[in-house]
Design goal:
about 40% helix, 6-stranded mixed beta sheet, 12 strands, alpha+beta, about 425 residues, globular
Length: about 425
C-alpha cells in the first residue's frame, strides 16, 4: 500500500494515501471520548460532537457551513468511549473546502446558542431511544467491564457514550466549550486522506496549522481495575421467547495495542471461532448440534483492553453443556499445537480479507487508522502475521483464554427468558 505519514508542527498526525479513484475520503479523529469525561460531564463529549458538526466555527458560520457540508457526497460524525471521529467523502475538487470546514468546525467551534439548544433536544431523544434498545443493559455492563470503571465512579453501570440525561439537559454553551478545550487539539488528533489527491495537498493541509497545539488533561473514568470473573443473566431481547434457544456472550479482555501478542491473537481467534471452518463452528454447531450460531470476534483497542467476544445461540435446555463445550474447545488450543497447515491457511484467509477490505476508500482509511494506533508500518504488520507459528497460537491461548469458570478473567452474559431485569450471579 502506497501511503505517506508525517506530523505537522502543531502535532497533528497526517496520513495521505493516493488511490486510483474519482472521489476523496477525509477522516479527522480526535482522541477524546466518553472515557475521558470528568465526573459531572457524562454525555458532554457526545454533545460536543453534535454541536461541532452542526454549529460551524468562526470562519464558516452555521448556515454557510451546513450548506457546504450537506453539499458533499457524504458526511458523518460519531463519538465512542475513546474518540470522536468526523468524516467527509466528496469529489477531488472539493478537498480544500472539506479540510477547511473540518479544521474550523472541530478546532474552533462557535457553539452557536441556537444550535446548542437544537442539538440538546436531538441528544436527549437519542438517549431515550438508546434506553429502549434491545439488549441495552447488557451493552452497558459490557462497556463498564471493558473500560474498567473505578468502583466509586458515578453511575458506573450506566455510563456509556450517550451519558446522563440530567447532564445534557443542564449543560450550557460554556460547559461545552470547557469540555472541548480539554480534549480537542491538533496534537491529540489524526487526519487521514485517501483517494484522488492533487499536487497542492500539502498546502491545503496547512489550514490545520492555523490552530496551535495545546496542553490538555483527560478524564479519569477509565482507570483499570482487575475485575476477575463476572457472570450475568439478562432478560430476553425477544420478549416472546419461549426458551428454546438462549444467547450467550463471553467477553475476554486482552492487552491494549500496540502489543507483541496481537498478531498471534488474531490468528488464534480465527482458528477458534471466525468462520465455518473454525473449531467452535465445527464442534459446537455441527458435531454436537448445540448451537445454530456461534462465533468469536476480536476487537483491538488503544490504551484500554482489547477483547475477544465469543457469541452464540444455544439450545435452551442444554445451556450448561453448551458453555462447557466452549471451554473444552478453548482447552484444545491451550493443550496442543494446531497443525502448521491450519495456521498457514488461516494466515492466507486473513491476507485475503485484508486485500478485499482495501477496495473502498473508507476501508483503507480504517486500515491506516489502525497503523497509526499501533505505531507500525503496513509491511511490518503483514510480516508479523506471516511469522505466527503454532507455538505462538498455543502460547497466547494459554496466556489469555479461560478454560473454565475459575480460570483467567472474563465476563459472561447468559440470556434468561424468565427474567425481567439483569441479575449478577457471580
Amino acid at each position: 500500500m502506497n501511503y505517506e505519514k508525517f506530523t505537522l508542527a502543531n502535532g497533528l498526525r497526517v496520513v495521505i494515501c493516493p488511490r486510483d479513484s474519482e472521489t476523496t475520503f477525509v477522516r479527522l479523529k480526535h482522541h477524546f471520548g466518553a472515557r475521558d469525561e470528568s465526573r459531572g460531564d457524562e454525555g458532554l463529549a457526545h454533545f460536543v460532537e453534535h454541536t461541532t458538526i452542526r454549529g460551524g466555527g468562526h470562519k464558516y458560520k452555521t448556515a454557510q457551513m451546513w450548506e457546504k457540508l450537506t453539499g458533499f457526497g457524504q458526511y458523518d460524525a460519531f463519538t465512542n468511549m475513546h474518540e470522536t471521529v468526523y468524516s467527509v467523502h466528496g469529489l477531488p475538487n472539493e478537498l480544500p473546502e472539506m479540510l477547511s470546514i473540518l479544521a474550523d468546525s472541530t478546532l474552533n467551534p462557535s457553539f452557536d446558542e441556537t444550535i446548542v439548544e437544537q442539538e440538546r433536544q436531538a441528544v436527549l431523544r437519542e438517549i431515550q431511544d438508546y434506553k429502549k434498545m434491545p439488549g441495552m443493559v447488557k451493552a452497558l455492563n459490557r462497556i463498564s467491564a471493558l473500560y474498567y470503571f473505578e468502583p466509586d465512579a458515578p453511575s458506573a453501570r450506566e455510563s456509556s457514550t450517550i451519558g446522563e440525561e440530567d447532564v445534557v439537559r443542564k449543560a450550557s454553551s460554556r460547559d461545552l466549550q470547557r469540555v472541548h478545550a480539554r480534549g480537542y487539539a491538533p496534537n491529540n488528533a489524526d487526519l487521514i486522506i485517501v483517494g484522488a489527491l492533487n499536487n497542492k495537498l500539502r498546502e491545503q493541509i496547512s489550514i490545520f496549522e492555523e490552530h496551535p497545539k495545546k496542553d490538555f488533561s483527560l478524564g479519569s473514568l477509565g482507570k483499570k481495575n482487575k475485575r476477575g470473573i463476572e457472570i450475568y443473566r439478562y432478560p430476553s431481547i425477544n420478549q416472546d421467547a419461549k426458551g428454546d434457544n438462549i444467547s450467550f456472550d463471553i467477553h475476554i479482555p486482552l492487552p491494549a495495542i500496540p502489543h507483541p501478542d496481537i498478531a498471534p491473537l488474531i490468528v488464534c481467534n480465527r482458528i477458534l471461532g471466525a468462520g465455518a471452518d473454525s473449531l467452535l463452528y465445527r464442534k459446537v454447531r455441527e458435531e454436537l448440534g448445540l448451537a445454530y450460531q456461534i462465533s468469536s470476534s476480536m476487537n483491538r483497542n488503544v490504551q484500554v483492553a482489547s477483547n475477544i467476544d465469543i457469541q452464540g445461540s444455544i439450545h435452551g435446555k442444554r445451556t450448561e453443556e453448551g458453555l462447557t463445550s466452549v471451554f473444552a474447545i478453548i482447552d484444545i488450543l491451550k493443550q496442543g499445537l494446531v497443525a502448521p497447515e491450519r495456521v498457514e491457511r488461516v494466515k492466507k484467509d486473513i491476507r485475503f480479507a485484508e486485500l478485499v477490505r482495501n477496495t473502498s476508500l473508507e476501508s483503507i482509511a480504517n486500515r491506516l487508522n489502525g497503523l497509526l494506533e499501533e505505531g507500525k508500518e503496513y509491511d511490518e504488520v503483514a510480516r508479523e502475521l506471516l511469522e505466527v507459528t503454532p507455538e505462538d497460537v498455543q502460547r497466547v491461548a494459554q496466556t489469555y483464554l479461560p478454560s473454565n469458570y475459575g480460570d483467567k478473567e472474563f465476563l459472561l452474559f447468559i440470556e434468561d427468558p424468565s427474567l425481567k431485569e439483569i441479575q449478577k450471579i457471580a
